[in-house]
Amino acid sequence: MAKVKVPRRTRMVRWLIVLFSATLLLSGVFLGGVYFYGRHTPIIPTEKFDLVFKTLSKKYYDQTFRGYNWKAVGQTFRAKVPKEDPNDTALTDILNNQLFPLLETSHLEYVPAWLAKPSQQSGQVRLGIILPELREMAGLILIDAKPPTKAVLLHVESGSFLDKQGIRPGLPIDIDVSAASELTSSVTHRVSITYNASMPDGTARKLNTEVPVGSPDAPLPYTDKAKQQIIVSRLDDASIDALQNLFNDPSVAHYTVAYLPCGLTTSIALPGKPSSVINVVKDSPADQAGIEPGSSIVALKTGLLALNKAHVSLEALLPSGIKKTLDTTYEGDLQSVSKPFSEERSALMDGPVLILRFNQFNDDNARWLDRQLRQHQPSAIVLDLRYNSGGGQVAMQKILAEFLPSGTPIATLKNATEQTRLLVPPGAQPLESRLVVLIGPASSSAAEVTASVLKHYSRAKLVGLPTAGDVMSASSLTFRDGSILQIPVATVLDPSGVNLERVGVTPDIIQQNTLADIRRGRDAPLECAKSLLAGTTCP
């Protein structure tokens, strides 16, 4: 056979192709090795703290950081981070239980790699990722405790006592109004003001002054809806009692307080909330102990005896004020946080009523809900959001498009520099079916915005209990070891301009299952919803 001579130019092209292919292969191997090494190489604790703090400092929605000297705060807490920290145990405590609480906001959480779920590892902007802090324990379904928030000084009147002391707005402040002392005139009250200076070590200035009680003809604290303020024009016992009652009113939780006698304006200091029981599993140890939904947990001790075997001892204060105790060993996890709830969804036709329950706002659930509505074409719908912890903004917009015309304002997202309006997207033909939405203390973020929007436009009646008040637009960042930082990047204002954070959504009809309902297999809020859709009153 004659030997075929390959032209030199062709040989050179072949060699170049081989060389290029080998280079690509080696580059792929190298980059893959770098990625594998990066994903499996621990980040030293101080480096991880620096990454978290830098990200938070750059992306946090409120760049005033509640008035704290944020750089000094970072230096203080960084000094607490140990050199070695298996599973990020110490770092997680420093961030979640010490640093982040200074900002008193929801949607701010660090999740170590060993706890992070693949579904959380997304940079998508959301209205709820890790919330709510929900757990099931010995048949109790609990919402974890919420700490109190302090008031923040917003305004100081020029020439006032605080102004002369050099006190300026921006930082947390405690105000204690006491009765007139024996050494003062009966027309004055002693006001003790503890001003938290911009030092992360907790140092504070305590100032005392005496201010006039005010004219007896001056009104008690009253609300100015136009300014969204509570006005305090005099400081006597009756005024302080009235002010305390207003502080417990969730409808004014987003207002500010103008203390006219003191010459200052503050945000409202909100009380903390203990862990509360939102449901009880029938025939469980909690049921047998007689613990009612709506109870507060006043004492709790837990322990893991073995794998999937736990012991819990607690004291619960029933809504009636009676105390009940529970001490049991049971098969189960101590913290089934969100897992059985977030992944559940169901659709049921009950006569003419389609009952839809889904516990996360995501694209899959948005498509599922659309299929259910188009398949059944119901004349009446119950949307059960009692265990819905929120989710993606886009999914929320798609779901609201099922019930509201395109272009309808949903919310305003407000960060440190700008505002963005969320609208119902075009493309869908909204249903005209009658609608009732079920909500409760576990409803948070996108679920709260959805309920608020449907209520605002009189598109649905809301039944159940007030929602969690955990409403922020958040984004998440996944570090190379798989750990996650969730950051609130914007506040969320409802269509009327109200910030729902720490306020939540109040239903049109308050309804909750009792323990007697649970034992009878009755769902009172759902029955109420079906009665409303049938044109009758709740049973």
Explain the overall architecture.
This is Tail specific protease domain-containing protein. Keywords: Membrane, Transmembrane, Transmembrane helix. The chain crosses the membrane at residues 12-38. With 539 residues, the chain is α+β, with helices and mostly antiparallel strands. The chain folds into three domains: 45-136, Transcription Regulator spoIIAA; 151-267, no CATH class; 339-472 and 489-533, 2-enoyl-CoA Hydratase, Chain A, domain 1 (Alpha-Beta Complex). 26% of the residues lie in helices and 27% in strands. The chain has 13 helices and 25 strands. It has helices at 8-40, 45-59, 70-78, 89-99, 161-164, 237-247, 285-288, 339-342, 363-376, 393-400, 446-456, 515-519, 524-533, and strands at residues 109-111, 134-137, 140-143, 151-156, 172-178, 188-196, 204-212, 222-224, 229-232, 256-259, 264-267, 276-280, 296-306, 309-317, 323-331, 345-350, 353-358, 380-384, 409-414, 419-423, 434-439, 461-464, 472-478, 484-493, 509-510. An eight-stranded mixed sheet has the order 7-6-5-4-11-10-9-8. It has a six-stranded mixed sheet with strand order 16-17-18-21-22-25, with helices on both faces. Helix 9 runs parallel beside helix 10 (393-400).
Short structural summary:
With 539 residues, this protein is α+β, with helices and mostly antiparallel strands.
The name of the CATH architecture of the largest domain is Alpha-Beta Complex
Cα radius of gyration in angstroms = 28 Å
Proportion of residues in β-strands = 25-35%
- Walk across the major sheet and give the strand order: 7-6-5-4-11-10-9-8
CATH topology name of the largest domain, in short, is 2-enoyl-CoA Hydratase, Chain A, domain 1
CATH class of the largest domain: Alpha Beta
Question: Using DSSP, what is the number of strands?
Answer: 25
CATH homology superfamily of the largest domain? 2-enoyl-CoA Hydratase, Chain A, domain 1
Share in helix: 25-40%
Number of helices: 13
By secondary-structure content and strand pairing, the structural class works out as alpha+beta
The number of domains: 3
